[in-house]
Amino acid sequence: MALFLGLDSSTQSLSAMVIDTDSGKVLLDQSLNFGQTLPEFGSPSGFLEHADPQLKHANPLMWVAALDRLLGTLKTAGTDFSRIEGISGAGQQHGSVYLRKRISDAPAWDPASDLLGQVQPLLSRETSPIWMDSSTHEECREIAEAVGGDDKVVKLTGSRAIERFTGPQIRAFYKRDPRAYGQTSEIHLVSSFIASLLIGQSAGIDPGDGAGMNLLELASGAFDPTLLAATAPGLDEKLPSAVGSRTQVGEIAPYFVSRYGFKAGTPVIAFTGDNPSSLVGMGATEPGTAVVSLGTSDTVFAAMRHPHNDPRGFGHVFGNPAGGFMCLICFANGSLAREKLAEKAGLSWPAFERAILEETTPGNRGNWLLPFFIPEMTPKVLAPKVELFGSERFVAWQEPAALARAIVEAQALSMQRHSAFIGEQPKLIRVTGGAAKNRGILQVLADVFGAEIHTLSVANASALGGALRAAEAVGKVPFDSLYQAFAATDASRAVAPRASATACYGELREKLVARLDALSA
Ligand code: ADP
Ligand code: XUL
Fold first, then answer.
1. Distance, CA 274 to ligand 2 centroid (Å)?
2. SS (H, E, C) 464-510
3. Whose CA is nearest to atom 5 of ligand 2?
4. How high is the pLDDT of residue 435?
5. 157 CB within 6 A, ligand 2
6. 468: exposed, middle or buried (Cβ count in 10 Å: 0-12, 13-18, 19+)
7. Are 124 and 180 a contacting pair, CB within 8 Å?
8. E strand or H helix that includes residue 97
9. CA distance linking residue 91 with residue 358, whole number of Å
10. Tens digit of pLDDT for each residue in 146-195?
11. Helix (H, G, I), strand (E, B), or coil: what is residue 109?
12. 56 CB under 6 A from ligand 2?
């Protein structure tokens, strides 16, 4: 047997997946929901509440506690970690963790007590800004100006200076709390932080996740001195190294050997961002297949041979962990917005699905809405904005079924609008994420894009991507053969577009796109 472990520390949960590359089987697929399992962190959706909707932080100790808790639960349930030959994984993108001491300089983790108590004294900042934070508008402007304008930042990094990206967030920390910034010796991404916990050393940052910092030069994969200087003083000394996605960053720390029974010396491969990891998990590392991920955020992404930037500034180019590049467009109002609407309309997920499939029709009889329940980055909407248009009852929130269809149609049309810069319309889209089990949502995506929708039998593409990357780097199994075994689509669940439905969207598309474009003008 050749077993590999993939971990995914996402916005709302930590997941673990174990694959056996000899049998082609997934042996373990388990998630721990932060809000449900660790209520003491006061983060029902994975982040801390704040009166200012632009400020979104999480407690990094929650991610640390989750790692111990999940591994402990799996061990108790009989998982034999000594058979794992390699580990890799992913983290939610852009979020950052601030430490007084480099993890490499901290005392070795002591197996006699939990990790949480050992990491707590290392933090120089109690909370971590995450990807939903939109409070750094001014810092983005300052960085762009210092470097020579937005176009220069795009050329260097693959994105404009973006509010949620790590560089502007680091600059905001430096400006708001210079003393704590001065006391910081190391700044990690969520991905490199989790990898560092596992090896008990400072793990490097890969170009898949590093490109989401506005600090990495995309072409070389190295941190750019001009951007570092424009962001905050002394930053070059506070970042871990930039490493290739296939780099072995270290070996599992003795803590995990003694507590959970890992084999000493188990290699850990650089972690990456959850979206780049899903690109691997969806078997989409070659150009041609677009992926829609319906997680806490909704994202649209695809592999790219050459970096091709979004002239309107919403899309990003990241490193593709398998080599080359990928493009990505992120929508903050993904699952959380659907949840808020479903709650307000009194719909369970099965009712939400039926509402779309059985109780309403494409175009929604002219009922539509703007779905910004939280601040949005694509298009840029700084404060929540939910506006309803259509029949009196709909506008009064009294048509639950039409409300369900309206949010999904608006989201799908916005995805289509904002991914147009990639070029040709995809004929085939692979969909993943928690909401991919909702066939109503899949049908709207199929109809709006006029594309066939495929899902994988494995739901957590990001954790799978971690396991596949470990298998490729450590086990030397090529991605092609891994994809045949693990990333095959489930033909019985394919959803076909209906030409008559696709034709319905002309007028709604025009109205909605005009509103969306006006918002971001
Ligand atoms: P993340 O990886 O960002 O933590 P997931 O990909 O696990 O998130 O997705 C979690 C989300 O999936 C939940 O917030 C929930 O709203 C959504 N979800 C779960 N089941 C359904 C369903 N049947 N229909 C629509 N959405 C669902
Ligand atoms: C991508 C983004 C989100 C996070 C959380 O740019 O901000 O998709 O990675 O999933």
1. 7
2. HHHHHHHHHHCCCCCHHHHHHHHCCECHHHCECCCHHHHHHHHHHHH
3. 92
4. 96
5. no
6. buried
7. yes
8. strand 96-99
9. 37
10. 999 999 999 999 999 999 999 999 999 999 999 999 999 999 999 999 99
11. coil
12. no
**Residue tagged 């995805």 (tokens):** 415
Give the span between the Cα atoms of 364 and 366, in whole angstroms: 5
Task: Annotate 162-190 with DSSP letters as a single string.
Answer: -TTSHHHHHHHHHHH-HHHHHT--EEEEH
Whole-number pLDDT of residue 482: 97
pLDDT of residue 490: 80
* Ligand 2 site, residue 376, Cβ cutoff 6 A: no
Average the pLDDT over 139-146 and give the result: 98
130 CA → ligand 2 middle, Å: 9
Helices and strands: H and E segment counts in the chain: 21, 21
Give yes or no for residue 397 having a pLDDT over 80: yes
CA distance 453 to 202: 40
Give the position, in ligand 1's atom list, of the atom nearest the Cα of 350.
Answer: 23
Closest residue by Cα to residue 321 from 454, 457, 462, 495? 462
pLDDT for res 423:
83
Tell me the mean pLDDT in the region 463-482.
Answer: 97
Tens digits of residue pLDDT in 221-276 = 999 999 999 999 999 999 999 999 999 999 999 999 999 999 999 999 999 999 99
Average pLDDT of the residues in 33-58: 97
What's the predicted TM-score (pTM) here?
A: 0.95
Give the Cα separation of 415 and 376 in Å (integer). 13
Helices (H), 419-460: 439-449
Closest Cα to residue 369, out of 409, 333, 320, 330? 409
Task: Using the mean position of ligand 2's atoms as its centre, give its distance from the Cα of residue 297 in Å.
Answer: 6
Cα(96) to ligand 2 centroid in Å equals 13
Could you tell me the end-to-end alpha-carbon distance of the chain, in angstroms, rounded to an integer? 56
**Ligand 1 pocket, CB under 6 A:** 10-13, 295-296, 335, 338-339, 349, 433-435, 437-438
Percentage of the chain lying above the pLDDT 90 cut = 94
Taking the CA of 131 as reference, the closest ligand is 2
Kindly report the backbone phi and psi dihedral angles of residue 219, in degrees, each rounded to the nearest multiple of 5, phi listed first.
-65, -40
Residue 505: partners with Cβ closer than 8 Å, 6 or more residues away:
362, 363, 409, 413, 447, 448
Q: What would the pLDDT profile of 422-466 be if each residue is shown by its tens digit?
A: 887 888 999 999 999 999 999 999 999 999 999 998 889 999 999
Q: What mean pLDDT value characterizes the chain?
A: 96
Which residues neighbour 517 within 8 Å (Cβ) at sequence distance 6 or greater? 379, 417
